[in-house]
Write a structure and sequence with these properties.
It is a single chain. By secondary structure, the chain is of the alpha+beta class. The chain folds into 2 domains: 2-65, no CATH class; 73-146, no CATH class. It has 5 helices and 6 strands, in the order ββααααββαββ. Strands 3-4-5-6 form a 4-stranded antiparallel β-sheet. Helix 1 (12-23) runs parallel beside helix 3 and helix 2 (44-50) packs antiparallel against helix 3. The radius of gyration is 19 Å and the shape is flat.
Length: 148
């Protein structure tokens, strides 16, 4: 049996673990209420080991979420910077208004072993870095992996 998440097919056991990672509480539309408490959410390290297909891995990482991934890989904050910004928005009635906001960027360092433990993947250096930030229009968080 397969489970489809974001147009990707997953084996049933992996699929239900990804759903548990994404939703924590069983949504009414998922018919898993009777086993929900017994399902173990998937971890980032398990995703890195389990999926070689890039699209499957992308969907799985989306299910786990940035906060859970960041907590699991032991990131060390290198630098944080907040920029004050101003933008003009249009209200539904067509009226313009100015919005002031803070835009924060955080640079983190992760040891390669914490990120890739148990996988065959690797880079030619010891530490990896990511930039964490929010899309200020939607409040979605992003991790942008960067070269040093």
């Amino acid at each position: 049996m397969k489970i489809v998440i974001s147009n990707q097919r997953f084996d049933y056991n992996l699929g239900v673990r990804l759903l548990k990672s994404k939703y924590r509480e069983c949504p009414e539309w998922i018919d898993l209420q009777d086993i929900w408490d017994d399902i173990e959410p998937m971890t980032f390290k398990e995703v890195a080991k389990s999926f070689t297909n890039v699209e499957e891995r992308r969907v799985a990482i989306g299910c786990i979420g940035i906060t859970s991934i960041a907590n699991e890989i032991n990131p060390v904050l290198v630098k944080s910077e907040t920029l004050k910004k101003q933008t003009t928005w249009v209200k539904p009635d067509g009226e313009l208004f100015t919005k002031n906001f803070d835009d924060t960027y955080e640079l983190y360092k992760v040891k390669k072993e914490d990120l890739l433990e148990g996988t065959q993947r690797g880079w030619g250096f010891d530490d990896v870095y990511f930039l964490k930030f929010k899309d200020t229009s939607t409040d979605r968080e992003y991790m942008l992996w960067i070269d040093r």
